[in-house]
Hints:
The chain is of the alpha/beta class. The protein contains 19 helices and eight strands. The longest helix is centred in the N-terminal third of the chain and has 20 residues, at 59-78. Residues 408-412 have low confidence and may be disordered.
Amino acid sequence: MKDLVIVFPGQGSQFAGMGKKWFDENRVVRDRFEQASDIVGYSLADLCFTAPPAEVTRTRFAQVSLLVLSYAMYEVMTEGRRIPVSYMTGHSLGEITALAAAGALTFEDAVRLVKVRGEAMESCVADSGTGMVAAVRMPVADVEKCVEDFNSAGHDVQVANYNADAQTVLSGTLDDLKGVTAHLEDRGAKVVKLNVAGAFHSTFMADALPAFTKALDEVEFAEPAVPVYSNVTGEVHGSPQDIRQALAVQLTSPVRWSAIVASLVARKAAVWIEVGPKQVLKKMLTGAVGTGEVHSLDEEPERVRAVLDRLVELKKSEPGLVGLCLGAAAATRNRNFDSDEYHNGVVVPYRKLQDLAKLDQDTLSDEQKQTALDLLLTIMRTKQVPEDEQRDRVGSILRRTGETGLRTIAGALAT
């Protein structure tokens, strides 16, 4: 099975009129717009479709509208079927969209949280005289060295986004950014000024933390049903409390997008779909994911549907969760030569797995699937299989079957 990654865009993908076709053609989008409008206290439809472009790009409005539209587009894409998603992530704000889509928080809480986030960030940078630039055509290490050299003279320029091997975004005061731009260009980089309100993902955002942290404390987080990658660590989120802490840290820390991409490429992620307006992330991913396919739902909806149809059919032809558990149970090396322990901990559980395999695999309950995973774990532990191998085998089964939401001890091992 080819691993499917869903990615959600962050601020910068917004534009006047975004989502109009999705809104007009899909009831679920209209419902989400209406639901979110009641929460934020203004009409998202009016904002996205009729407001001046300057309003749509304001941080407090852009973040909410991007979250709602992207989330609703994901619902349209998955409506009426279960697609085999292996991982989710998002760039900056998009990480919250990914967490909501993965069930780590409710849509309503996500809207409330992003409303506070956008307002706090906008207030923090008002009249701050800060901004961001992108340094391209220069390796990250060289950019970091240039910034270090520049800052040694008393300046404070900070890396805000590690987007790609040769695309690094910097935050700082406008004067410092002007100075570091000259410093970088003298050394061969191309520097582009970004149309943003201030120095995001840097310590210049510290004043936005109190309001956002308070809002985070009011949200109930859960284990995501699908592994979601963190912008702060570049790795999969841990516990609900870890998610809460990481989202707070993200405001003042760099987005480690290139680390996320590298980790997923190492896991052989084969299909990437950007869900949200435009195709900013698709452009960033193309060429960075090796032979992986990259698609934009907004720009090529029919192509995306065809790709998903193919993945759904491919999944049907593969062994189900119980079959994979049987295969893993048989394939693992035995290191336990106590006959009684082997009978009770391997033979008996294996027969129970065989009994589960005789059932209709399409109608298995989550409890039966969890039982299968626990039987596999019993077999592997009895065989004295190392824990890291147990974790790898269970994690592979959960990803291949799209059952990463199962939260037994097996699910805990897989994370």
